[in-house]
Each structure stands twice: as structure tokens, then as C-alpha cells.
Amino acid sequence: MRGKLMVALGAAWFALAGPALAQATPSPAEIHAQARGMIAEARASDVLEDITPDGSPMMSIRHNPSGLVCLFFPDTKQQEISVEASGGVARGETVSCSTHVGSVNYYAFATRYPKPPALEAHLARAAGDLIKILSGKTIDEPPPPARAYPFATVGVLGVRAGKPSYARARVAQIGDWTVSFVVINAGSADTKLADEMLAAQSDAALNWMVEWRAARR
Asked: Is the dihedral of CA 59, 63, 69, 73 positive or negative?
């Protein structure tokens, strides 16, 4: 079932960014080879795993300690996954993923801090970073629907390279892992593509994290 969901999510995300990609989808063997190549480049085969289901147009790489799954477009150079130590957190206890397609920049992070920050503080820091990047301000919006785990979101409108731009961050606490997802649509204040890409990836990724952690207990 999860494999089918990954295929569907990959197809939906690929379709959202399709106009910016304008390329043919590689074969399953080529997609698996590219996923393994990204893991090798990150020197992280001990904590990263290619779980791309056959039929998916995108690569799916899981960070096994946290369960975070990141999606990557094949034949796209501006993307990366890293598990290197950062900010006093040991290697493998943090993972960052980035994908850049057209004007849209997408990031996902999961970190097991020695002392997890309060969700409100984590969201405020994410908002502050986006306000600084876009020289912008936060958007008034209703609170997100209740979830089975701590969750919050913030949107920012601003300017980048002289053009109106939009960004959104989602943060959550899954067990002892602090998770954040960020999308920046640089050069466009159109919220639709950015929101759809962020929602498609983050909702699925958080659900998979919950399932993965439950299965390993």
C-alpha cells in the first residue's frame, strides 16, 4: 500500500513541477541508480536507504534513524541530501534534503536534538529565517487542523531579486525528532504551486515517519 502511495505522490509532485522540468522520465533502473548515487555522494549508506517503488517517477530516499522520506527528481542536479554533523548534533542524528526546480526551492529537515526546542520557538526561528531571506512579513492565517502530533505552519510574503516571492514553513515534533519543511517560490508571489508541493510532500512524510517509528518499536 505504501509503495502505491509513493508512486501516486511522486506522480502528483512531478506533475506540479512538470513545466519546469520538461524532460522524459528515466527508467526504474535509472532512477534507482541515481538514488544510490545520491546516497553514495552523501557517504551515508549506513543511515540512508533507497526505497523508490518501481513505477514512481521520482526517487524516494529514507533516513532510517528518523524515518523521514525525501523525494527527488531524476536528472536534476540542484538537489542534495546530507547527514553530516551540524550545530552540536552528531552525524546521522540530523538529515537535510533540498530540491530546486524552476523558481521553487524545497527543503526538509529532521533532527534529534539532545534537548528538543519548543515547537513555538522552532516555528519562530523558521519564520525569522524566511523573513530575512525575503525581506518580508508573515501572513495572517487560521490555525492548522488538529493532528496526532505537535504541528504548526507559517507563510511569508516578501521580495527576492527584486521580485515578489512567497515562502511557507511547516514544523512538527515526531517523538524525539524535530521536523521542518520549507518551500520558497523565489520570484513569484503565487502561493498555489508552493503550497501544493509542500502539502503533498510534508503530509506524506510525516505520516510515513509515524508509521516507520511505530513499526520499529
From this structure: negative
At 106, the amino acid letter reads Y
In the chain, the number of structural domains is 1
Tens of pLDDT along the chain (217 residues)?
455 655 656 666 666 565 555 566 788 899 999 999 999 999 999 999 999 988 888 899 999 999 999 988 888 778 999 999 988 899 999 999 998 877 788 899 999 999 888 999 999 999 999 999 999 999 877 777 788 889 999 999 999 888 889 999 999 999 999 999 999 988 777 777 778 778 878 888 898 899 888 888 7
CATH of the domain at 182: 3.40.1000.10
Q: All 3 cell numbers of residue 210? A: 509515524
Name the helix (H) or strand (E) containing 120: helix 119-134
- Grid coordinates representing 21? 522540468
How crowded is the C-beta side of 6, counted as CA atoms within 13 Å? Answer: 22
Q: Find, among 134, 176, 129, the residue nearest to 157 by Cα.
A: 134
Cβ-based neighbours of 149, under 8 Å, separated by 6 or more: 172, 173, 174, 206, 210
CA dihedral for 216, 73, 200, 91, sign (positive or negative): positive
Q: In what order do the strands lie in the sheet with 59-63?
A: 48-50, 59-63, 68-72
Residue 161 belongs to domain spanning: 2-215
**DSSP 8-state code for residue 188:** -
State how far the Cα of 100 lies from the Cα of 115, in Å rounded to an integer: 31
**Measuring CA to CA, which residue among 137, 120, 130, 124 is closest to residue 198?**
130
